[in-house]
Write a structure and sequence with these properties.
Layout (H helix, E strand, L loop, with lengths): L1 H13 L4 H16 L3 H11 L2 H16 L6 H18 L4 H17 L2 H6 L2 H15 L4 H18 L1 H8 L3 H14 L4 H13 L9 H10 L7 H16 L3 H12 L6
Helix pairs in contact: 2-3, 2-4, 3-4, 4-5, 4-6, 5-6, 6-8, 6-9, 8-9, 9-10, 9-11, 9-12, 12-13, 12-14, 12-15, 13-14, 14-15
Keywords: Signal
Pfam family, one: TPR_8
Protein name: Tetratricopeptide repeat protein
Amino acid sequence: MIRCVQLLLTLGIVFGMSSEAFAADALTIRSQLSGGEYSVAYEEAKALETAEGYGLAAEALLSEVILGRAEKNKKQSKRARAYAEAALELDPTNQNARLQYAIADGFITRETGDVSAWLKKLPQKTYDIIQAYRSDYPEDPRGDALLGAWHLAIIRKTGSKDGQSWFDANIEDGRALFLKSRAREPNDLVIGVSYAFALIALKDKDLDNTEEARAILEHIIGLNPTDYLTAEILGYAREALLRLDDRDAARDYVGLFLDGEVPM
């Protein structure tokens, strides 16, 4: 595959093709992703057979998982991880592929049963993958958000005591990481909603109020979405805010989103 890409690049130089000819394809796919045309974007991205293309293919697959539109979340997340891995084999420095790999791995861990995940040490493996991304791209607030989500997701599943003793996860670190991420990108819809929903989803004994989540959502609903994904997530944020006076109803609603299902 690498030889094929090299041959295409060589032929491009010989016949006067510029690098923009390749970039235009990726730009078109980016536009499709922005418009929510995930199936089309996936097919065209993987057909590029480049690191950038495989990374975009993974992103298209994971966008569907995020919005609860994958037929099988775990299977699709594994496929996305495989494409991200293929991208990194071609170009180990491709940042988007690294990000998509971390996201996909987290979804796979989420979709694995608690006992099986514990026996296979999947949460620890996911932690290491996210931490490696943060180390290599310290300027990217999404790395901090991913690790913050890791902490809060484990506490949601296990509770504070077991989360701390089994995985060294805790609410304080999760909040600190999300706050660091939001300090850099206070108007990022995905980061903001992910944090607010993660807080709402916690059990009352772990977090007995929703004031921080409410403040975040009130800020978020005043923002403009930048693409199809953020427009959909903004709609979920509005609905969650309407339910927030009933913590159980709000928790059930955001829990569906956090579990890769369509909130209802």
